């Protein structure tokens, strides 16, 4: 049963190609029969070519006419072909039937080529769907059980062996490995992953076995979101395509009216004979049809969307691919966008007889009982040191934490909190701490047994690619780049200076960020916003193009944004802008070519220099040309 199923699937997917081939075969046999004088066979074979080659176009054209009361190019082609055949039968000039069949054949070939182009762009979805296995091995008390992905529940623990695809998003519970994330994030090199880190469905596990805990439903995994968004992008039409669609309907009516007038008036005005008049009118219907103009936009934009997806840039629809090429100003959020959003120890200062290790161990002994991000950063930095957990630990929210470590009272927190317990602090440490805070760093003081041990400077790490990304955007001609953040002005200024941004809006609430975007839009019209958090969602929605960080971004930000950077790589913003500009350039080229062909063919038709087959070849050739031109973005 396998081969019949495959054959059925093949014929369904390539029905347009098979119809064109069969139409061509019947046309050749009909022409050959006519050449031999077998008129009966010719009149049997040629109508069959009409029916097989033109059935789909006739069906679509009549459906549009009946249901929507509109004319389209499919119906115009069929009318022209049937008109040529009728004229040939009436005048017993059977070569006109051949001309009509050639029109049907070339139109069918054009449709098959356009179908091939669309299938090329749709492969991105099929390849994404094939990235995830159908089942996962779930751990139970009785052992392993292989279950469908759809049956996975949050909290389940699954095993992934070396060389296998990750079945769903999860957190590593045990194990260490490298994962190839190229298909999801566009990263060319494998990424090391260990306990506590997140892995994504569709990524390829390297040499180590992993035990994962499912932390979100399988339907909410990153790869499933990608699939849904790509599907949405391929079904939604951008404004330019919507305009062309509306233009086609009105244009077709004008062409039909003009064709009727051309079939009636020339004998009375220019003295043409009726055969020439009707033949030129039919040729006019063919060459004036806007097929090439209709194919000038969507193949290009769909190819651009597929290209972006391969590079870790997900456009939700073609409209955003159009808009991003026109962006003149960009607003960046700070935390999680220009920075990693992960606090790290930047400096440890020890005073008196204490060492840096002593300061870290004392702080970690207390912070190990805290869930605060600063505490987690301190504990992580002290992982390689030998320390004991403090007892009688008491945290004062927003101030600090106290406890007993090795029978000594230890105090960790802000300088004001330390001053509540100690009367005198080292002047040199106060000066150094103030300098560090001016750089945007958070300073945590550590004291033991009524004596200051030192201080720890903590900062949100700036993304390594941030500076180069900002530079690339300026080279692309972006007129304004600003940073908007809810963080304090001092920290914001420090980060902005480090990455090369001069205009900073700090201490903003979500509605304040929205106002900044609106202000930029008044000045620059097309404005992009790059963010990752829930508080960025209103600004992302307001921006002409909202860009979300795919890995670090919240679900709200991902749903609100128009473009998602799957690997959180800021340098991909410049790539997306260049892709948008190139797509617009190709669309403009295609429109010029399409209109140019229509004008040339119309002039040639009125001068009497082209016949119906040549008009068909020119018309359909231009359609194929602009379609293939749009596919250049697949490279």
From TrEMBL:
Keywords, sorted A to Z: ATP-binding, Cell membrane, Ion transport, Magnesium, Membrane, Metal-binding, Nucleotide-binding, Translocase, Transmembrane, Transmembrane helix, Transport
Chief site of localization: membrane
Record flagged with keyword Transport: yes
Location(s), subcellular: Cell membrane
GO (cellular component) term, any one: plasma membrane
PROSITE patterns (alphabetical): ATPASE_E1_E2, COF_2
Domain of life of the source: Bacteria
Residue stretches spanning the membrane: 19-52, 96-117, 251-272, 278-302, 591-608
UniProt topology in membrane: Multi-pass membrane protein
Keyword Ligase: no
Alphabetical list of InterPro entries matching this protein: ATPase_P-typ_cyto_dom_N, ATPase_P-typ_P_site, ATPase_P-typ_TM_dom_sf, ATPase_P-typ_transduc_dom_A_sf, ATPase_P-type_domA, Cation_Transport_ATPase, HAD-like_sf, HAD_sf
An example Gene Ontology molecular-function term: ATP hydrolysis activity
Occurrences of domain P-type ATPase A (ranges): 130-231
NCBIfam families to which the protein is assigned, alphabetical: ATPase-IB2_Cd, ATPase-IB_hvy, ATPase_P-type
PANTHER family per UniProt: CADMIUM_ZINC-TRANSPORTING ATPASE HMA1, CHLOROPLASTIC-RELATED, PROBABLE CADMIUM/ZINC-TRANSPORTING ATPASE HMA1
Family membership: Belongs to the cation transport ATPase (P-type) (TC 3.A.3) family. Type IB subfamily.
Protein name, UniProt field: Cadmium-translocating P-type ATPase
Record organism: Dendronalium phyllosphericum CENA369
């Amino acid at each position: 049963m396998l081969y019949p199923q495959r054959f059925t699937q093949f014929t369904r997917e390539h029905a347009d190609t098979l119809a064109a081939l069969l139409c061509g075969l019947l046309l050749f046999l009909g022409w050959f029969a006519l050449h031999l004088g077998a008129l009966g066979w010719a009149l049997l074979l040629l109508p069959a070519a009409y029916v097989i080659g033109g059935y789909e176009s006739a069906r679509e054209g009549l459906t549009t006419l009946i249901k929507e009361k509109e004319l389209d190019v499919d119906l115009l082609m069929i009318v022209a072909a049937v008109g040529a055949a009728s004229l040939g039968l009436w005048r017993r000039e059977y070569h006109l039937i051949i001309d009509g069949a050639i029109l049907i054949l070339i139109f069918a070939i054009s449709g098959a080529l356009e179908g091939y182009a669309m299938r090329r762009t749709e492969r991105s979805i099929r390849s994404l769907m094939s990235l995830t296995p159908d089942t996962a091995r779930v751990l139970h008390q009785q052992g392993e059980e292989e279950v469908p992905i759809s049956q996975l529940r949050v909290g389940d623990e699954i095993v992934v062996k070396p060389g296998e695809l990750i079945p769903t998003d999860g957190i590593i519970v045990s194990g260490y490995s490298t994962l190839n994330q190229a298909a999801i994030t566009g990263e060319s090199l494998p990424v090391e992953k260990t306990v506590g880190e997140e892995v994504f469905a569709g990524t390829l596990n390297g040499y180590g076995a992993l035990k994962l805990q499912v932390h979100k439903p399988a339907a909410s995994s990153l790869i499933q979101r990608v699939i849904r968004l790509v599907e949405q992008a391929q079904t939604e039409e951008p404004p330019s395509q919507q305009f062309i669609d509306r233009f086609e309907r009105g244009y077709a009516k004008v062409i039909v009216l003009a064709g009727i007038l051309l079939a009636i008036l020339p004998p009375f005005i220019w003295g043409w004979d009726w055969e020439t008049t009707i033949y030129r009118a039919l040729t006019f219907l063919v060459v004036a049809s806007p097929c090439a103009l209709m194919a000038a936009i969507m193949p290009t934009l769909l190819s651009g969307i597929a290209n972006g997806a391969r590079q870790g840039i997900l456009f939700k629809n073609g409209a955003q691919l159009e808009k991003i090429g026109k962006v003149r100003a960009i607003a960046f959020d700070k935390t999680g966008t220009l920075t990693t959003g992960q606090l790290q120890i930047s400096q440890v200062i020890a005073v008196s007889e204490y060492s840096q290790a002593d300061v870290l161990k004392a702080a970690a002994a207390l912070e190990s009982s805290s869930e605060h991000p600063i505490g987690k950063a301190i504990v992580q930095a002290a992982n390689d040191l030998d320390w004991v957990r403090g007892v009688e630990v008491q945290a004062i929210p927003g101030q600090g934490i106290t406890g007993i470590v090795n029978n000594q009272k230890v105090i960790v927190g802000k300088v004001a909190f330390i001053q509540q317990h100690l009367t005198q602090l080292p002047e040199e440490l106060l000066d150094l701490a103030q300098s560090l805070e001016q750089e945007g760093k958070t300073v945590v003081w550590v004291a033991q047994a009524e004596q200051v041990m030192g201080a720890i400077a903590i900062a949100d790490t700036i993304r390594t690619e941030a500076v180069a990304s900002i530079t690339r955007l300026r080279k692309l001609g972006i007129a304004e780049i600003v940073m908007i953040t809810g963080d304090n002005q001092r920290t914001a200024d420090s980060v902005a200076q480090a990455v090369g941004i001069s205009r900073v809006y700090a201490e903003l609430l979500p509605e304040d960020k929205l106002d900044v975007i609106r202000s930029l839009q008044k000045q620059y019209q097309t404005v992009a916003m790059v963010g990752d958090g829930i508080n960025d969602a209103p600004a992302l929605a307001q921006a002409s193009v909202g860009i979300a960080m795919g890995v670090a971004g919240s679900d709200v930000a991902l749903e609100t944004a128009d473009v998602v950077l799957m690997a959180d790589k800021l340098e991909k913003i410049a790539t997306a802008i260049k892709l948008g500009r190139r797509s617009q350039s190709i669309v403009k080229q295609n429109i010029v070519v399409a209109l140019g062909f229509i004008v040339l063919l119309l002039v040639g038709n009125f001068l009497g220099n082209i016949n119906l087959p040549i008009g068909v070849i020119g018309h359909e050739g231009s359609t194929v040309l602009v379609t293939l031109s749009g596919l250049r973005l697949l490279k």
